[in-house]
Amino acid sequence: MTAQTPPTPSFRDPRLPFAKRVDDLLARLTLDERIAFLHQFTPAVERLGIAAFRTGQEALHGVAWMGPATVFPQAVGLGATWNDDLVRRIGEAVSAETRAMRARDDRVGLNVWSPTVNLLRHPLWGRGEEGYSEDPRLTSAIATAYTRGLRGDHPTYWRTAPVLKHWLAHNNETNRDTTSSSVRPRVLHEYDLRAFRETVEAGAVAGVMPAYNLVNGRPNHVSPYLREHLRTWTDQELLVCSDAGAPSNLVDSEHYFDTHEEATAAAVLAGVDSFTDHGTDSSKIVERVRGALVQGLLSEADIDEAVRRQLAIRFRLGEFDPRLDPYAGTLDFDTAAHRALARESAEQAVVLLKNEGLLPLGPEVRIAAVGLLADECKLDWYSGTLLHRSTPLEGLYERFGADRVNFAEGVDRVRLRTSSGAFLRVPVAENAAEVTADEARGAEGALDPALLAGRTDLPPLTTDAVGSELALIDWGEGVLTLRAPDGRYLSVADDGYVRASADQPGGWVVQETFRLEPSESHDNGHLLKHTGTGRYVCVAADGVKVAAQEPRDAEIFELESTERGEDAVTRVAAAADVVLVFAGNDPHINGRETEDRTTLRLPAHQERLLRAARAANPATALVLVSAYPYAVDHADLPAALWTAHGGQAAGTALARVLSGDVSPAGRLPQTWYADDADLPGLLDYDVIGSRQTYLYFEGTPLFPFGHGLSYASFAYEGLEHRTDEDTVRVSFTVTNTGSRAADEVAQLYIRAVDPSVPRPRRELAAHRRLRLAPGASAELAFALPSAAFAFWDVAHGRRRVEPGSYELLVGASSEDIRLRTTIELTGEAAAPRAVRALGLKAADFDDQRNTEIVDRTKVSGDAVTPLDGGTGELVFRACDFGAGVSGVSADLAGEGVVEISLAGGPPPAVLTLPPTKGPYDYTTVTAAFAADGVHDVHLRLRGPLRLAQVGFSG
Questions:
Q1: What residue spans in the chain does CATH classification 2.60.40.10 cover?
Q2: Which tens digits make up the pLDDT trace of 146-171?
Q3: Burial 482-494 (b: 16+ CB within 10 A, else e)
Q4: Which of 206, 550, 597, 888 has the greatest number of C-beta atoms within 10 Å?
């Protein structure tokens, strides 16, 4: 007798729709198993043959943290290409390598946490390198291209499942887990939500990750916008993954909830499906979820909803259909095509900022390559480990020949004398074991540069009568690195000793940076403070270590200069035909995750090198290699370029552009301001009110949004348009009038001519990068939906196209407009606010002074409060009181006074609020108030109160 084969579970049946299969699998999981699924590291369910799963694999510009991989330019560099097709191909390559790496290491995840679509609103944001642009349309276009590449083009199965970061209005690292971004409705809908929305609606996004910060007083991890906006943009199940440690922040740093059970329940109910907290240890999250269930804060149905979204992603990734998964056998890794794509993308990211005939360089030119970035190929926190490496110096050697290129790094070379008269010495490392990348992996398989730097098998620094000459590299803001004669950076291991052990500065906490502080007891003395630990360097019998907590216990050093960086630069510059000064930043220092910049200026040391080069040789070009814009004085420079850190092919790409093998066509993805004084406050998220980004900035930028020059010239002509129903169709012709083949980036902007509310000075509506041979022409055509001309009407809570005149502006940048014409749109006429029937929501103001938006409750709604409990004002335009009202009421919490008045009208009505029990304990306060017809309403708020809504009666 033969035993009967058990039936195949429905979740294993590929003939069934994913939704039915998810339901079947969900029903088979026990409650404990479902609860365990809420943590980032989901355990295996062996009885069902379900493998372990991990949400989260960093892949911003290549597979990160998992060892060697192809490294493409930083995200801001990809934004500078303005090339959707190129970025899509990069996404395809990155997802192929993700699959190939997973085939040999199951710690590599297929749920990739990329791209970052936070807008580059403020150029001092420490994570600006991770975003694409300050413009929401360009950001969404590039992000959509990247996610399409990551997802793949199969109709059923996905190559990887991309998650967008970081929801929402996140542009500061300073106190990033406790600061609140005050975002009024127009900015929310026209700016911050837009980049996410257009990418989600394109259909290649698996989910989002909330940001650490609060928005309008409420942490993003309990944001109602997840359900009110995000989940309404698509019928597809979206997975919401928390940022690392953010669930605990709800209690520990933000103090938004009293208990972790309350916080966990609130996050699940808001829409968080996967908790990234406490590393690989899921026990605390499991305990909190169970506690929330026991307390009645969550139901099993709430848990099922979150698990269902996770399972939907796993089915799309082909986990349960290995024989049908078209990407299961992907082995494409470090292929010739990927290497070529890395070079192509690095070339396309180069932006020629200025050129007065110095570039391109001739084949026989003698070059001086100088500066801190000349012989560097820098990585950032989200880079993979380099398989290939090309610095600018190496690229120049390859292209022009080593005999035609002289190099001077320009660092100051010093010896450090101790109080005993001896000098710091770097001992020779004898018989030290080499540490491989595989040996430096953490528990999660992530490559940790700090483990390479934190070696204890190397001898620590000592002292002797001669000492060692150290390269002192000044990165600005008082931060420096010290490099030994063998090229290794001084670093501090867990045992506190200082060793020459790091290839580069790096790690979550950088252990290779120091500060020199003047000694109060010695005229020429300095204390050496280690920034990673906050302790001072001491000299002991067994070696040099960081041990002193107080300055009085620290070693006092005198700096003996053996060579100034300017002197080395001057020598090689004077003997060259052309000087290339390579300046910029190290992505782990002064501007990175957890650390905002404080200024747009180049570090003072780099400015000195630039001046020295220019004084020695007028034929000097500045080549900025950086993750951020800088405010540089270029008046006496004949040429300047910028590129983000370009990954593995950065140096080759720069050399090909400098030589003219490639004509540059990158375009700035954000405004370069001329001075720090042009910037708003870092925490001022009101791009409209404070006139931020190219959309509203009224000053003169150093270089405008969309700017970038070429070695060719291009003519624009034949601008035509027509309106078909809800679409404006625009066409024009671009011709290469130069003598070489080159790319051009044609840009189409729109502008409301006479708007009734503040609108952008101009707004990017479409763009296209195209390649043209000399004399060749191409006709470009764009179809703009009427929604492209709309704004968010706060009076009525929806988008509206205002009737009137609009300009179509075509050109090579936001300020280099070559063609323009005006069109008329019928739109929808404005209507006054029906305040008698609907009242006024406080956050729907037209204008404000000295206020911020806060949370009305911990679950939903907005209120407005004066900044710091002082005095603020709200203005509401065109309020219609109809035949008249006789009373006013206000929903208030806290304590204070609200005065309501009409422009030019009688004395204000006063509503006085006695103290309430807390910020969420609202009461309604009334007063007599007479008005009829249409008026502008002014509300003056005094004291620490919260105003949610105003109503009218009578």
A1: 695-825
A2: 999 999 999 999 999 999 999 999 99
A3: bbbeeebbbbbbe
A4: 206
For residue 544, give every residue at least 6 positions away whose Cβ sits within 8 Å of its Cβ, in sequence order, or none.
424, 460, 461, 462, 463, 497, 498, 537, 538
Query: For residue 139, which phi and psi values (nearest 5 degrees)?
Result: -60, -50
Classify each residue of 325-352 as buried b or exposed e, where b means 16 or more C-beta atoms within 10 Å of its C-beta. Answer: bebeebeebbeeebbebbbbbbbbbbbb
Q: What six digits make up the tokens of 301?
A: 């149905």
CATH 2.60.120.260 positions along the chain are 835-953
Considering the domain 29-316 in this protein, what is its CATH number? 3.20.20.300
For residue 906, cis peptide bond before it (omega within 30 degrees of 0): no
Across the range 52-58, mean pLDDT stands at 97
User: How far is CA 764 from each of CA 515, 736, 752, 754, 789, rounded to the nearest angstrom?
Assistant: 43, 23, 12, 18, 11
Q: How far apart are the first and last CA of the chain?
A: 88
Residue 709 carries which DSSP code?
A: B
Please name the residue ranges forming H helices in 706-858. 835-838
Tokens of 147: 């996610």
pLDDT band at 435 (very low <50, low <70, confident <90, very high): low
C-alpha 299/C-alpha 180 separation (Å) is 30
For residue 173 the two structure tokens come to 């690292």
For residues 129 and 345, give the distance between their C-alpha atoms in angstroms, rounded to a whole number: 16
Q: Where in the chain is the domain with CATH 2.80.10.50?
A: 419-556
CB distance 260 to 251 below 8 Å: yes
Domain at 695-825: CATH code: 2.60.40.10
The whole-angstrom separation of Cα 29 and Cα 307 is: 10
Judge: domain 835-953, CATH 3.40.50.300: no
Query: Hey, is 406 helix, strand or coil?
Result: strand
Catalytic residues: 243
Topology of domain 347-410+565-667, per CATH?
Rossmann fold (3.40.50)
Q: In what order do the strands lie in the sheet with 847-849?
A: 847-849, 871-880, 934-942, 896-902, 909-913
d(CA 800, CA 792): 6
What tokens appear for 888 in the block? 């006013």
Asked if residues 171 and 125 have their Cβ atoms less than 8 Å apart, the reply is yes
Question: What architecture (CATH level 2) is domain 419-556?
Answer: Trefoil (2.80)
* pTM of the entire predicted model: 0.96
Q: What are the tokens at 911?
A: 């509503």
Strand partners, 715: 735
* Start-end of H helices in 618-776: 650-659, 693-696
